[in-house]
Amino acid sequence: MKFLVCISNVPDTTTKITFTPDNKEFNKAGVQFVINPWDEYALTRAIELKEAAGSGTVTVLNVGEADTEPNIRKALAIGADDAIRVNAAPQDAYFVAEQIAAIAKEGAYDVILMGKESIDYNGFQVHGMVGEMLGIPTVAPAMKLDMSGNTATLEREIEGGKEIVTVNTPFVASCQQPMCEPRIPNMRGIMTARTKPLKVVPAVGEPARTQVTEFALPPKKQGVKLIPAETAGDLIKLLRNEAKVI
Amino acid sequence: MSVLVVVECADGEVKKSSLEVASYGAEVAAMLGTTATAIAVGEATEANLATLGEQGITKVLYDAEPRLKDFVNNAYTKLIATAAEQEQAKIIILANSNIGAAVGSRLSVRLKASLATNVVELPKLNGDQFVVRRGAFSGKAFSDVVLSGDRKIIAVKKNSTEAKHEAGKTAEVASFSAQLSDTDFADAPSQVVMQDQAGGILLPEADRVVSGGRGMKGPENWNLIEDLAKALGAATACSKPVSDVDWRPHHEHVGQTGITVSPNLYIACGISGAIQHLAGVNSSKVIVVINKDPEAPFFKAADYGIVGDVFDVLPKLTAAVKELG
């Protein structure tokens, strides 16, 4: 079984988001980048399934410039066998999906996994685009993934419940908790990751279909109105008469 | 050309998020000088679909194929693509739900359309430019995005726009068939399992949310959260540490790596307010924080606050709501 795990390079979850003075770009100064947390589920589950089967490969794929390589090496340290970096800034979901689809087709991967969405762009789009480009099923967002031969059984989250879906390879799934407990690299993994193959390839396909023109931050709160704990019930009156939300 | 709105139904009713999407679609149609047609998916009744006229929908297409009752990605994609071609729709609008995002992303490739998800406002038309504002950085920011090309797909974030109701207006319900075959249902679910929702209120669509953190001290104390939620007609939620230790299920986890919600009222009980949690709730209209630590960072993001013990405060709030009647 050949697994292709797509990871993106995103600001750490504790990052305070700021922009350049013209609000045109995210301000990267002093920001630590990590593997997108949702992608960690995809990566760990692929490694677990490969280990359980006793054979197969896990290839990690990133669309990004050279500064994403530390996180690609981290994915190799967690247990991926090799890596591919498409040397281009990820312009939009469509552009990224084109790169993934091209590599998935060329390498004849059986299972293409990624996180539900990236925590910076929050597109939740790439999985479906890749599936459609390749003409194969997509299961998104998947909370559980088990494989038996070429057949996968997945739990797909729907609003208020879940669906059990069975598909044959090849397929695409976007992953989220509680699929597995994401692994962290150990020392041996970190040592071996240095010599694992990391191939850099140029981008392909058509240009992006969307373009970000400006960023904005949410409006600041006016300040908190405190109600004494002894007369907590007064809060409810304020919510009805002042805030008018109940 | 027209605007095509995808309306999700369950148990015969149009989902609340789809009423919002229908209103949004009607307003976009008015901006462009055209009409809004809906394509219904899921289990619907003709009478309920006709009421989409109240949201400004002119015509509703409905394919009565019984296998469309549950979500099937390929079948829904083909259904909506066929409707879009028939209506010559240049703009397709869906809810930013698990269904909307799954179908919207496939449709964008099939129909060669540009796609924006998580959209929070009506589009702006700047000359030839079609610009939408969407949530980014998991609730910490917004980005304005230009959608290029002839066709555009917009997935609207839940609770970010209000559903209009013009009583008495009805939409024409037209039967429609996308000529779906067995192969379109190859990825149909073998089983659908619904959770027991507190009071039947789904967290992503809820107007009011009562949420608990580690300050609740254990799952056995959640009755305090549930009692207040029930009195308010609210959904229940929790912070990441709470779902990580399995006090509550993962689908209740609100935050940067859980779900982001934007209810009218969010009440946080015993949650300190880590930046990852705030990201998930900061588009709520009114935030109430109850915490015994006056230094809890959440108070800085709150509209109302009570410095006190949740075990003392929550029963008082529940009683006060019941008194209001």
Describe it.
The complex is a heterodimer of chains A (246) and B (325). In chain A, 26% of the residues lie in helices and 30% in strands. With 246 residues, chain A is of the alpha/beta class. Chain A has one domain (2-218): HUPs (Rossmann fold, 3-Layer(aba) Sandwich), CATH 3.40.50.620. In chain A, α3 packs across α4 (126-134). In chain A, a hairpin with a 2-residue loop joins β7 and β8. Chain B has eight helices and 16 strands. A seven-stranded parallel sheet of chain B has the order 5-9-4-1-2-3-10, with helices on both faces. In chain B, strands 13-12-14-15-16 form a five-stranded parallel sheet. In chain B, α3 (73-87) packs across α4 and α5 (222-232) runs parallel beside α8. The longest helix of chain B is centred in the N-terminal third of the chain and has 16 residues, at 16-31. The radius of gyration of chain B is 21 Å and the shape is globular. Chains A and B meet through α3, α4, β7, β8 and β9 of A and α3, α4, β5, β7 and β8 of B. Chain B: Residues 3-192 form the Electron transfer flavoprotein alpha/beta-subunit N-terminal domain.
